[in-house]
Amino acid sequence: MFLDYYKILEIPKTATPAEIKKAYRKLARKHHPDLHPNDNEAKLNFQKINEANEVLSDPEKRKKYDKYGKDWEHSENFENMEKNRQQSSNSRRQSYTGAQSEDDFSDFFSSMFGGASSSGRSRQVKYRGQDYNAELHLNLTDAYETHKRTLTVNDKNIRITIPAGVENGQTIKLPGHGGPGMNGGPNGDLYIKFSISNDTQFKRLGNDLYSSIDLDLYIAVLGGEIIVDTLKGKVKLKVQPETQNGSMIKLKGKGFPVYKSDDKFGDLNFTYNIKIPTNLTEKQKELFIELSNSKS
Predict the structure, then answer these.
(1) 127-198 architecture in CATH?
(2) What is the DSSP string of 91-131?
(3) Which fold has domain 203-279?
(4) pTM strictly above 0.85
(5) Is 145 helix (H, G, I), strand (E, B) or coil?
(6) What does pLDDT average to over the chain?
(7) Structural domain boundaries of the chain?
(8) What is the dihedral of CA 69, 75, 79, 85, to 10 degrees?
(9) Taking the CA atoms of the chain, what radius of gyration do you get in angstroms?
(10) What is the pLDDT of residues 161-189, one digit of tens each?
């Protein structure tokens, strides 16, 4: 599908570089995904605006776009073909001796232009479609489970399955979902880059998760059981007596899922943060004094 970059940026074809820059900044602010977190249309518009700016703000790319339109990325192929045609045309006007027959020349011409006949008519060259790039925003909890999403790319809805365990910055390829090919050529591919935000208490490092637990002093000293959160729900955790501040405990297999590996998970690591009690009563202070004296 042809995208009119001038129309997308709402500028005339005579726009100056400064006008292009101004229009891009205005529209990028208006359609930025952070301002429309649940609006797929705004995300699509933002992608189109960036694509249009990338081309029109580059003098060489803009020149090719103005000349070749939707096929501007294939401009070098067109220009090389035209150059070869001109060279071949000039060669045909030259006289040939017995060292090179008409059949030899036809073979040469055919190899240059993909099966052209001696009459100068050639079949059209097939061109692969343009690759598309898109960014998909997920929360860490979204990336924890395999799920389906619908993307809108160039006004087309694409249903994809996102495997659990994708990482921030990871890119996957959807073959054939890019721009249409030309003259019967194959479609381009769609590359989706994941941007994963994290609003949980857990820090992710690879497939392992890390967090801290505030632990009551009495439980740290005497031991006991506490309830802790994981990305899969709450679990009961046994605290050993005389647990030290800053010590770490590992829950095997309670971390993040391994990408495209069913039933495989990293580990969940908790660091204990022992809380010193405050607002003690006189009786409690006496007990602590008694405990301190007994230690000496």
Answers:
(1) Sandwich (2.60)
(2) HHTS---TTS-HHHHHHHHHHHHTS--TTS--PPPPBPPPP
(3) HSP40/DNAj peptide-binding domain (2.60.260)
(4) no
(5) coil
(6) 83
(7) 127-198, 203-279
(8) -80
(9) 33
(10) 999 999 999 999 999 998 888 888 899 99
